[in-house]
Amino acid sequence: MVLILYVDVSSGDDYLVQPAIGQYLSTYFITNPKFQDEVIFFYRPKTPIIICGVNQNVYSEVNLDYCREHGIKIARRGAGGGAVYVDPGNLTYCFVDNDNGHNYLNFKHYAQNAILTLKQLGVDAAMTGRNDLTVDGKKFSGMSALKIGNRFSTGGTLMVDVDLDNATQALRPPKAKMISKGVKSVHSRVTNLRPYFSAPYQAITLPELQTRFLKNLFEVSDLSDIPTYVMTKDDWQEIEKAATAKYGNPDWVMGKQTHDTAYHSRHFAGIGTVEISFTVSHGIVTHAKIFGDFNKMNGNLAAIERALVGAPYTHASLTEAFVQGRVAENIGAIGPDALADTMLDSQYADKANINQ
User: Is 2 left (phi over 0), alpha (psi -120 to 50) or beta?
Assistant: First the structure.
């Protein structure tokens, strides 16, 4: 029998006001040798936060002026996936597990308990697309994954009482992503779960939702029967030191702003949205930067960018550059010719994101 350990992070409330620490938790449970088996933990943000995926362009995905005006903090996780808005009305669940050859990126497997729990509360939840959980065609959870060595984390959000107006104003998804979802705005695509709870559960609190989730997962009627590790002060001090060094570094969070003359985005089913910021001068690509919400978080995007720079702005030359950049290894199963088309075809121009 595989042991699942519940890690209680409630002792870290004073630390978790720092968004960087919340983003580092998964890495801690992946890399710390004291955690060898599967782990489940929950994270509830203390303040409104925009969390971007490791390969995303903060300047195009986020309305930074709005965030500054409304006190919304910006963070970047080590995992792939898209940008999400979270606040105290959101509960995030996260599993950390060992890769057995078929469970990494198996989002459906790790979403099962969330779906079961929500169905018991009257929510007709379902998994749709690559990594979304939805109800009534609207998204309440996006899932992402982070892998280090043979261990990985994967989890999702449970939006119960999130400020959807904040989410709509703060997030600016690329045009291609919105088209792929068949919607015109963030607000029309996402929803809180509260309206879908059946009458007996309309007033359920997030701690109560977490308790029900755990009882279902461990198949127990009492939380005292769950194998539990309570985080210590030493744990939190170690996490704070490591988290602030990387996840608290503004260079890591914000990245470098691009000032190219073109910005194209295209959604690829099963992979995600690929965004390419580039400049062409006298028929030659002089600069290129790749962004996206694809889940391959440790691909060598710089290798693709180096191959593109100096390439003639033609289909054959761009295709060859993407071949040399080993797209399958570094982004996912996308044909190099399809990415060449993305750069050449004006239908993929995402003008809203140029020079943001």
Answer: beta
Tokens representing residue 145 in the block? 């994954």
**Given pLDDT bands bounded at 50, 70 and 90, which one contains residue 182?**
very low
Please state the domain count of the chain: 2
pTM beyond 0.85: the answer is no
Q: How far is CA 316 from CA 22, 145, 321, in A?
A: 45, 34, 9
Say whether both 147 and 241 belong to one domain.
Answer: yes
- In angstroms, how far is CA 65 from the centroid of its own chain? 22
**CB contact set of 78 (below 8 Å; sequence gap of 6+):** 23, 26, 27, 54, 146, 247, 297
The enclosing domain of 207 has a CATH number of: 3.30.930.10
**Residue 328 burial by Cβ neighbours in a 10 Å radius (0-12, 13-18, 19+):** middle
Range of the domain at 237: 4-254
Predicted local distance difference test score (pLDDT) of residue 169: 93
On average, the pLDDT of the chain sits at: 91
